[in-house]
Structures are given as structure tokens and as C-alpha cells.
Amino acid sequence: MTTSTFNIRLDDELRSQATQVLSAYGLTPTQAIKLFFNQIVSTKAVPLSFNYMNDDSDIIAIAKERLADPRPIKVNIDEL
Q1: Which residue, 4, 35, 65, 73, has most beta carbons within 10 Å?
Q2: Measured torsion, CA atoms of residues 24, 39, 65, 58, in degrees rounded to the nearest 10
Q3: Which pLDDT tens digit goes with each residue over 29-69?
Q4: Distance of CA 66 to the CA centre of its chain
Q5: CATH at residue 51
């Protein structure tokens, strides 16, 4: 397998903060980028959530389930 060099420009502060986070996981930036690229190739998708600030995945899952099977349900006010 041949390798190539991949150069990117980053804000110094961004690089510093990201390197600290990666270090806590025992990773170098190079290792993290390789993991990221391998995940993209394996899944054929970008492994990022662009709505990380709004984690409504549980609500969305319930809504999809109920839309797929629209029937009356009993709801207790305490369950809300």
C-alpha cells in the first residue's frame, strides 16, 4: 500500500483544542483523521451528526413509529 501526504490549514486555536481532546482518547491528529476516513469508506457516509445541539433522536424515533402505525394510543399524563 502506498501512502500520500494530506495537508490542511486550520486555525491554531482549533488545532490546539482538538489535539487536547484527541490526546485524552490516546489519539494523535493523524490517527483520528485515518479513523475518520476509514469510517467514511466503511459506511459510505460521513460519521457526523449535524444536529448535535438538538438531540431529539428519541422523540423523532417515537414520531416515526407512530406515523408508521397510526392508531389511537393511551397516554398517561405522568408519562409525558
Answers
A1: 35
A2: 10
A3: 999 999 999 999 999 998 887 665 566 777 778 888 878 88
A4: 25
A5: 1.10.1220
Q: Does residue 17 belong to any structural domain of this protein? A: yes
Cell of 26: 490516546
Q: How is residue 77 written as a grid cell?
A: 399524563
Positive or negative, the Cα torsion across 22, 24, 27, 28? positive
Please give the grid coordinates belonging to residue 52. Answer: 448535535
47, three cell numbers: 460519521
Q: Which residues span the domain enclosing 26?
A: 12-79
Which one, of 7, 31, 6, 5, lies nearest residue 18 by Cα?
A: 31
pTM: 0.58
Terminal Cα distance for the chain, rounded: 55
| DSSP, residue by residue, 51-64 | TTTS--HHHHHHHH
